[in-house]
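Hi P.,

Sorry for the delay on this. The queue was packed all week, but I finally got your sequence through. Input first:
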Amino acid sequence: MGSAPDWSRLGEYQAQLTASDFRWLLESQYAPNGANEGWVTVERDRALVLRFEDDAEPYEIEFREYGRLPAPPPRYWRTRDEWRATKPDDALPLAGLKVALDPGHIGGEFAAMEFRSWKTSDGPLFREGEFVLEVSKVLKPQLEALGATVYLVRETNEPVTTDTPESLRPLAAKLVTERELTPGLELDVKDRELKEKSLARLLFYRVSEIKARAQLVNEQFQPDVTLCLHVDGTTTPEDKELADQGYAHFLVNGAYSADELSYDDQRYAMIERLLSGTWQVERPLADTMAVCFREISPQPPFTYTGPNAVRINPNPYVWARNLMANRLYQCPTIFLEPFVANEVGFYSDYQENPEQLAQTYARAVELALVRFYAAP
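Then the structure:
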């Protein structure tokens, strides 16, 4: 469902980074543990990127000389300093800031399909997509009152995409036949019909839905920042319905694996994000998000133990991970996972007063945006 990248677009990003900055970002955030080997080669004054396997003439990225200012990159979003330069001194704290709120998943009848709904034996049904949509609807007027322009990527408990699992069934059958399954779409299912049906569902909510949202973000909204609102879930002991302890973490794009970088579109997306400078906003804003949530509703930090994520600064809450949304959204994008839905404290609060819980979530996000963008 992807398209071949247009590498010529990177021509406008030439001389954006010095060699040391490019190498630092590649090794510490985007392609740790040598994941870029064989695909991206860093030389003294340039980087060479294979556009496809066995590329005899790799794409050349020129590095910026020390002390030389880069030309403005071709992007629709603004850094904090660029936004501040356009904001009158007497304006509202977030005047003119463009924020997209992306309520994760879908909700409604689709929540079960995405495995994002559950309940205890005697408690209320929790659907992640519905809860974070409510958070977005609480947060939107709060940010607008501070002068921001706010977009909701999803406004109802219906998908953004016009595709359906049924319409994607022929593609699923083709992929199963050709065994062309990218990371995140692998299925350990033996029965072919069941495999095709399961893959069609994955293509619906994990690929088509995200691509439809990305089109809204990049072509219609063009915000300065996108916040993907989520609530995590965890495994519970066999004898318990709820976990005893929750956690929180905040994600930016990065940690591409060698397998992921073997795909031309993912390799291109990584290079574009690195050169466009989304990290300049993502890294400090994610850090501020973590601090503000800890002040308002403290949770211990989640720790990834596998190679699919990497720490990018001393803050134990902040990680880089390659997800489709934070790869395709071309602006700074933060994934928020500040709570665990099936944890005793969160679920009790949800059962007693879901509206107040949504307000707590929204208040922490508002505080973080004001502190990051508007504080001196």
